[in-house]
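Justification of computing resources. Each target in the renewal requires a structure prediction run like the one illustrated here; the chain below, 180 residues long, is used simply to show the kind of job we budget for.
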Amino acid sequence: MLKSTAIALAVVTFAAPAIAEMSDEQQVLNAINNVGYFADQGDWDRVAAQFHPEGAVLDYTSYANASAGTSEDLPTLLPAEIVAAWQTVLPGYDRTHHLIGTESVIVDGDTASTTANIYATHILENEGEDTWIFIGDYQHELEKTDDGWKITFMRANLRAQLGNENLPALASERVALGNN
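Resulting C-alpha cells:
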C-alpha cells in the first residue's frame, strides 16, 4: 500500500508541471475556444477575460444582423462592451453551442493570428422552426500579455445559414422583454 501511494505521488508530482506548461499555440487556442464555450455557459466574466483589457475590434460585417461589429467604422470595444452586446441576444436562446475546430495558429513573438471553422447552433422554441445554425469561420488576432494571450480582433465570416434565420431577432426580442 505504501509503495503504491509513493508511486502515485511521484506520478502526480512529475506530471503536474507537464500539464501546467502549455505552448503558446495551445494557450491561443484556449483563448479563442473559451469565448464560445463560456458564452454557451452564460459565464460572461470568463468571456470578457479572453479579450484584451484595452479592447478588441469585432467584425461581423458578413452577418448584418449581428449585435455588434456590423458598422462601416469598427470601433475598439472594451471587454465589458463586447459582453454587453452579446448579452442583447445570446441569453434569449434556450440553448447555444459554439463548436470551433480545424484551427490554424501562427505565433509571431508576442502576437498571434488564427483561423478556425465555426458551427454555432442556436435553439429557441417558438411558433416556427426552433434552430438556427451559423456556419463559417472566425479569424482572430491576439496579443501576449502578463495575463496570457488576449484577443484584440475577432472576425466572423458567415458562409452559410441553416434553419430559422429569424431566430436571432426573436432571441433579441426575448431579452428586451426580459423573458430569458
